[in-house]
Model the fold of this input.
Amino acid sequence: MFQHQVSELVLDNCRSSDGEIEGLSDSFKELEFLSMANVELSSLAKLPQLTKLRKLELSDNSISGGLEVLAERCPNLTYLNLSGNKIKDLSTVEALTNLKNLKSLDLFNCEITNLEDYRDNIFRKLPQITYLDGFDQEDNEAPDSEEDDDEALCFAECEDYEYPEDEDDEAGPPGEFEEEDEEEGESDLGEEEEEVGLSYLMKEEIHVRCALLCDYRKRGI
Done:
């Protein structure tokens, strides 16, 4: 059935019945992004088992508690939007402690944001998160998307890679330069050869490894 192939599902403005939306079930095995904004949801008790889900949008509903269900049903969440719900107490948010991969949490326009030292308390109770309401603890804005954040981290790690030295590695990629007489080679290629400190093949290998690292992170591997 098609549910096994769906990775993104948007059900915004649908109407839930007794805490569930018809058709949404644990048959969506590959679902990574689910949006249920403004569906009159007041409970998560009937949320299906979605083990690959990474992003969950639940804004503008009537959820006031029961968040512990998320760690059981959606253990790999990295992004959770609960803005515009009826969350009032820090104890309610503490239920998210077991979402170990959670990086971004949005509680904008919930009553809890009016509490004194709201941000400090949330970051203390949920040390795994990086962004709260779109900003980190130093008030730096979150990237436009989670993928941008992951890619930035990947390339930062690649930039820190310590390239091994190769004494014989003084030439560019195979076939880049034609062999010339010794005198012509010294005049035409001297500067280029000095700038090439890493072989073409080694650079390509590192670039591929970096791309694979980014891909693994996107898939939560």
